[in-house]
């Protein structure tokens, strides 16, 4: 797998360099115990305008994330010392940046668990370098906040969603949301009263077509519901529309 990726990295090095979208050098922390793969990824990202820090020991992962507060974390699932799921769960209360989970395991359960622990994206290995770069930039664009035009705040009874500060409140209490959860909540709220299909959600949030298999949207909805006071068993705010998608209900 690493040999295959090395060939891709080397091929890209001979082509015209890609102009980075982030000239201020966003800081990326890669927690990966495969030294060769980590270094190849670091070199490629640095060539595309990122500052990169490597960490191979899962036991140091939590401290590194909380101390460095990088703009984005690429987190391997299987690590020595502490696995990626545990790291993600432990840092989420004090780290708001995007976390991309990168792993050779493709089990649906691993993907669901990763998302439930607070990961923003879940990428199976091997991933093509340009695909990795595109998905990183998509996460960073969303984390950087909304465009200056358009509606900035939505109110639904005791729920408020502010797209300028990327925060939400329930009865005046701030809701703890990951970047990906906020993006989905804002999209649903902005389209309140209209059924959004999974195809529309994927296109808007990730810029890709829905493959009919990815469960990340469903997992995030299940995490958002209790946070906004919605009963997961009998939701009144975010309703599932069978075989279609989701409906964010306007105030009665």
Automatic annotation (TrEMBL):
SMART domains, alphabetized: REC, Trans_reg_C
Put simply, this protein is called DNA-binding response regulator
Keywords linked to the UniProt accession: DNA-binding, Phosphoprotein
* Gene Ontology molecular-function annotations: DNA binding
Pfam families for the chain: Response_reg, Trans_reg_C
Every copy of the Response regulatory domain together lies at: 27-140
* InterPro entries hit by this protein: CheY-like_superfamily, OmpR/PhoB-type_DNA-bd, Sig_transdc_resp-reg_C-effctor, Sig_transdc_resp-reg_receiver, WalR-like, WH-like_DNA-bd_sf
Query: Where are the 4-aspartylphosphate residues found in this chain?
Result: 76
**Where in this chain does the record put each OmpR/PhoB-type domain?**
151-250
| Domain of life of the source | Bacteria
- Write down the DNA-binding region ranges: 151-250
């Amino acid at each position: 797998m690493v040999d295959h990726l090395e060939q891709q990295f080397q091929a890209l090095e001979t082509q015209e360099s890609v102009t980075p979208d982030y000239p201020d050098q966003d800081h990326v922390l890669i927690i990966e115990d495969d030294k060769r793969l980590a270094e190849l990824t670091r070199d490629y990202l640095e060539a595309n305008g990122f500052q990169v820090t490597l960490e191979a020991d899962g036991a140091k992962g939590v401290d590194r994330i909380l101390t460095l507060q990088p703009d984005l974390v690429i987190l391997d699932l299987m690590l020595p010392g502490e696995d990626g799921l545990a790291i993600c769960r432990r840092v989420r209360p004090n780290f708001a940046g995007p976390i991309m989970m990168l792993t050779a395991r493709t089990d649906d359960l691993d993907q669901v668990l990763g998302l439930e622990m607070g990961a923003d994206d879940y990428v199976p290995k091997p991933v093509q370098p340009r695909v990795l770069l595109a998905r990183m930039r998509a996460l960073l664009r969303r984390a950087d906040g909304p465009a200056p035009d358009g509606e900035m705040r939505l109110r639904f009874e005791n729920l408020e969603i502010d797209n300028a500060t990327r925060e939400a409140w329930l009865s005046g209490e701030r809701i703890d949301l990951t970047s990906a959860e906020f993006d989905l909540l804002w999209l649903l709220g902005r389209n309140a009263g209209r059924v959004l299909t999974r195809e529309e959600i994927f296109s808007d949030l990730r810029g890709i077509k829905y493959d009919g298999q990815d469960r990340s949207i469903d997992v995030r909805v299940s995490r958002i519901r209790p946070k906004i006071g919605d009963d997961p068993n009998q939701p009144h705010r975010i309703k599932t529309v069978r075989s279609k998608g989701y409906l964010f209900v306007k105030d009665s």
